[in-house]
Amino acid sequence: MNTSLLSATKDSIELRGVSKSFASQKVLERISLTIKEGEIVALLGASGGGKSTLLNLMSGLLPADSGDIVIQGVPARQFQHWQRIAYLFQEDRLLPWRTVEQNVHFGLENSALSKQERRRRVADALTLVGLSAFVHHWPHQLSGGMRSRVALARSLVVQPQILLMDEPFSRLDPQTRGSMHEELLRIQALTGMTVVLVTHDVEEAVVLADRVVILKPQPGRIHLEATLHLPRPRVATHPDVNEQIRLLRLEV
Ligand SMILES: Nc1ncnc2c1ncn2[C@@H]1O[C@H](COP(=O)(O)OP(=O)(O)OP(=O)(O)O)[C@@H](O)[C@H]1O
Ligand SMILES: [Mg+2]
Q: What's the total number of domains in the chain?
């Protein structure tokens, strides 16, 4: 039996009729969305549309008011998410008093892994993001792109099956952003993890995602879902990629 084919079609994240309000403000209204294992999904939409709230619900940090959120077959709030889900916030949240290596190690400090295994994982994660030569540097000695890589390594060190990312590259210059995109795609292909990426940038969504989901605000609901069949690597200047970007921009 080909298990890789079987696992490729398993559900990773399932939301069924999920609603969420803050005080009297309805932020998300009956969201239903199924994300497959190993899929890269980009969430796009106007500010205040509930994108970050949706990631908070998926991560189990926030309870839904109604509806079901199921992560790999288990209700989100019961999920042992520290070992399976990594959540990469928009700001890098590095600890300035810790070196690169110590910052990445932080991701494992609640785990039951042996000291040796933790050390190995930290080294592997830093190699994955191309920072093995900078393990003893301090955050203030790094460029913005390098800091983003450290934050990514800190997420990867738990070897997550699901990576939730909230606009992680929005503050980077275009060149650094491009290399972070390549890095993410390379690591995703290597690990097969599921990625949910929030972005304001249609181009970023089209370059990275298997599927794009556009939310509309007040209350946040799914306006459009589009599966992208474009071959990789995708370059924004390629006519097919460019046309997809143009079409989706009309919808956001
Ligand atoms: N903890 C909270 N308490 C009260 N209101 C909240 C809370 N979190 C979010 N909101 C409100 O919910 C709405 C959606 O917020 P959310 O952060 O999910 O939007 P977003 O799509 O991520 O926006 P942006 O693109 O600006 O990051 C906003 O109106 C926001 O003010
Ligand atoms: Mg947000």
A: 1
